[in-house]
Amino acid sequence: MLFLSLSVLGQNKTKDLTKLTYNELHDLYFDNENNPKKQILYTNAYMAKAIQENSRIRKAKANYQIALLYYASDKDKAIQYLDSVIKYSENTGDKFFPAAAYCEKADFLKRQLKLEEAMNNYKLAEKIALQTNIDYYYVVRDYIGTTKSEDLGEYKEALAIYKECYNYYITKNYRKQYANDFQITIFGIADCYKSLQNTDSTTYYNKLGFQESKITKDGYMHYLFILNEGANQVLKKNYKAALDSVHKALPKMIENKDLGNTLASYFYLGKAYDGLGQKENAVKNFLKVDSIYAETKEITTEFIDGYPYLISHYKNIGDKENQLKYISKYMVIDSILQKKYRNLNKIVHTEYDIPRLISEKESLITSLKKDNAKSYLGIGALILIILTVSTFGFYQFELKKKYRTRFERIMQRSAIRNNEEHNFEKAKTIKPAILKTEDIGIAEELIQEILGKLDGFEREKGFLKSDLTIQSLSNLFETNSKYLSKIVNAYRCKTFIQYINDLRIDNAVENLKAESKLRKYTIQALALEFGFNSAESFSAAFYKKLGIKPAYFIKQLEDSFKIN
After folding, report:
1. 547 secondary structure, DSSP code
2. How far apart (Å, rounded) are the C-alpha atoms in residues 223 and 214?
């Protein structure tokens, strides 16, 4: 919206700016990275000039600038503009596009945890760059190496890619034209060796990178190699040397606003202090790791060990509230990482067994509730419990019977659904006899058109998008939300929210029956899987439709399969 509104307001200014060259507009755009309003004016002028001259590659570069403006606020929008970059720049012979657009798109997809799609885009960039710009081809190869190493944990594959890039730069004038790319590659090699726990090779390449950064006077890379060696010294159990290196590097990471490596610095400080037996300092640094994660919502498997440490620490000192707090955080992170790697058949190995952690969490909650209850419940409460226990037992017995009946009804309904699917789909599109077109005030042709789109929406499982609203779906259907709401009410006999939730719950039931691995997920992870934003909203919708909680349904499913 910001781009469009300023496009209108700045029309006269745009006409003046189009007199500048493309290079001048390009430089003005990137010289004003902290002033998006000015950037929009310059990119508007760039686009207007490109349209006037009907230059495809210039239109592509204008769209690229717009995509960058959406980097932080709307990644889906950014990807749409990158797709326009790709469309306009295909077969233009440009040295960087569309390869660079594919790389940027891959980066956005990674941040959305769509790693498989990201790798596909990197491969497209790689294929194009190999034909148009061999230097940029190795930049893309480095991106692929970084993704394999940092996101996928494929360290050996990443190492082979980094060494391929290293050998290429060695044949070039790498200290001038390729200095930064060469040092990034050296860092990648050192980091892979560190992840493979080949500490001697890690030290060798850290020293090599350190020397190269001194020669080229690259201060940031200089301290990045110091930080990496500090982490390596933790692996070597040289904890004092590790502290010295990390303390030297940390201020530079903070100065450069590099939150990822600032988090890494605090993590390895925590590990080093723990190795020296300084538990309180270890806790302080792991808490700083958590504070950065709370800000960025980004963390990799390399840095999550601080959470088990905090859980154990607070357990040992009897602080149940903080123990529960970090168990909950750790479980959320585990759920996110499981979702991130699931489609790539990756298993996230963690120190804690999650089912055991769930049990510990439930025990803590019970314990905390009991502790709180002691402050205001006395002997009278105990007497009341004794008096009601028999009644409660009978109630629980009846409740279990009711839940079991509901479970069996769900299974029976589910078993016959596939046989009735054709008739069910056909029946959905037939108007109820008691309704007429004029009853809801919408033309018959439009009703049938929207019903057809609803059928497609259900088949394609569009309801699994967690940010779905009636407004976004009506925009997709090219109609207005009032019409869509009326048609859903009349022909699906539900409110829009109930309609979406029921579709999600039906899908959840079928998938939980079919896929045993899903039955091992947390309720939070299942909620995200089936389109809900929280465990609470998923459980509430599940209970409203089926009369039982999802945890009970899963347990009964597991028991049924064991018996069979």
Report:
1. S
2. 10
